[in-house]
């Protein structure tokens, strides 16, 4: 019975400490709003430089102007789809030889590689 009383007292102390930490955390916020779980996510914007904010870490990863990127197309090949994630762009090209994905770095304009989409033999 004595062990149970000690455990109940210890849990009570933990609850009081937890509530105190929550109140302390809320009082540290300037506007009283609930803080987000992580950094604000946003997509990079081509043509703009990275700039730190005065209130904390960078809120967006913006990329510098990258100029012209030349991607060699095979005869009869056309651009079917384009997508961007972060500082990389993926081009989906289709032609007589089949389809391929070309991954391009928007930081320096380099072609990082390509993925050939071939039918099984």
Write the layout of secondary structure elements.
Layout: H1 2-28, E1 78-85, E2 88-95, E3 98-105, E4 111-117
Antiparallel strand pairs: 1-2, 2-3, 3-4
Transmembrane segments: 6-26
Keywords: Membrane, Transmembrane, Transmembrane helix
Region (Disordered): 34-58
Contiguous low-pLDDT stretches (5 residues minimum) are 52-60
Derived from helix and strand composition plus strand pairing, the structural class reads: alpha+beta
Order of helices and strands: HEEEE
Overall body shape: elongated
Strand content: 25-35%
Query: Span from first to last CA?
Result: 75 Å
Largest sheet: 4 strands, antiparallel
Radius of gyration: 27 Å
Going across the biggest sheet, name each strand in turn: 1-2-3-4
Helicity, as a percent range: 10-25%
The number of distinct helices, counting runs of at least 4 residues, comes to 1
What would the average pLDDT be, to the nearest integer? 77
Strand tally: 4
Keywords: Membrane, Transmembrane, Transmembrane helix
Region (Disordered): 34-58
Transmembrane segments: 6-26
């Amino acid at each position: 019975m004595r062990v149970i009383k000690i455990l109940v007292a210890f849990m009570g102390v933990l609850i009081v400490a937890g509530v105190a930490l929550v109140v302390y955390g809320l009082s540290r916020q300037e506007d009283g709003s609930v803080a987000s779980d992580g950094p604000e996510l946003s997509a990079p914007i081509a043509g703009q430089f990275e700039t730190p904010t005065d209130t904390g870490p960078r809120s967006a990863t913006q990329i510098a102007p990258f100029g012209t990127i030349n991607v060699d197309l095979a005869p009869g090949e056309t651009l079917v789809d384009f997508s961007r994630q972060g500082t990389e762009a993926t081009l989906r090209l289709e032609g007589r030889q089949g389809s391929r994905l070309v991954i391009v770095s928007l930081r320096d304009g380099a072609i990082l590689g390509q993925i050939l989409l071939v039918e099984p033999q």
